[in-house]
Structure formats: C-alpha cells, structure tokens
Amino acid sequence: MKRLFPHPRMMLLLAVLWLLLVNTLSLGHILLGLFLGWSIVHLCGDFLLTVPKVRKPLGLLLFIGKVFYDIVVANLQVVRLVLGPKSRLEPAFVEVPVEIENEFILSTLACIISLTPGTVSAGLSSDHKTLLLHGLDVPDHDELIATVKSRYETPLLEIFECSRT
C-alpha cells in the first residue's frame, strides 16, 4: 500500500488544491484531482522529504511566531542599512557549523535564514555539516553563528524528533 500511495496526505492536498483552482465539486474533477495528486506524487516522489514528528507542537507555534517577529525586525534593520551610508555595510560570507542531520529540518533552517532579510543561505557543504551564509552587515562572524545556532538551530532540534551529531 505504501508503494501505491507513498505520500497520501500530499496526494489529497494536491487534489484539494485542484478542486479549489477549478472551483467545482463535480465527480469528474474530484477524480481528476485525485489522479493528478497521485501522479504528481509519483513523479516527484524522489524530491519529497520525510517530515519528522513534532515533539513540541506548542513550541513549534511559538517558534513560528519568533521567526515572523525576526523577519519584521530584520526588514526594519535592512531599511536602515540601505538608506544609510553604504560605507558602514560589512557584507560577509560566514560558515556556520550545523548539528542537524535530518534533511527536512536542515532545509527548514536554510529557508528561515533566507526569509530573514539581510541574510541568505548560500550553500551547504557536501557532508551537510556546514551551512554557508551571506550577511548584508556582519561586523562579528562569531555573533552571527551564535545567533543562528541559538535562535533557530537549537529550537528546531528541540521541536522535532531527530538525532544530533
């Protein structure tokens, strides 16, 4: 059964999205949506990551709130930097060692960093142990590393069931 329907929730989500796009609940469109969901999951199955179980659901909600807050604050900081003198900027690439082994959580960390204005995930080492970041203004490399690890990496490791190195 797992081979026939490897990601049933994703298949149903895609079917519901199809029904929302066509704005009808006819039997033909329901069947077409299910077929599209099934075929897309099979065609893209090698690219889908397994999401680990959430150990702390409330912690996840609080973490999402913290990320949204950080995005707003970073937007204001970037506006201040961009409107200020360009000579004050200290852009830099920083290598952040990561303890995360799960691909989904590592992708989540990289996305969070890229969503926060002023920083972007620029690369990942081949052994998945070092994340390369670019910061718009990085006066202290060690402070950026400590911030990423304490604000994002550690909470992600606590929220999801995963192993540490």
CATH C-level class of the largest domain: Alpha Beta
Low-confidence segments, given as residue ranges, are none
Indicate the overall shape: elongated
Distance between the termini: 33 Å
Characterise the protein shown here.
The chain contains five helices and three strands; from the N terminus they run H-H-H-E-H-E-E-H. Strands 1-3-2 form a three-stranded antiparallel sheet, covered by helices on one side. The protein folds into two domains: 8-47, no CATH class; 57-159, Alpha-Beta Plaits. The longest helix has 27 residues, at 57-83. It is mainly alpha-helical and 165 residues long.
Question: Which helices and strands, and how do they pair?
Answer:
Layout: H1 8-22, H2 27-44, H3 57-83, E1 92-97, H4 103-115, E2 119-124, E3 130-135, H5 141-159
Antiparallel strand pairs: 1-3, 2-3
Helix pairs in contact: 1-2, 3-5, 4-5
Which features does this protein show?
165 residues; mainly alpha; elongated; 11% strand; 3-stranded antiparallel sheet; 2 domains
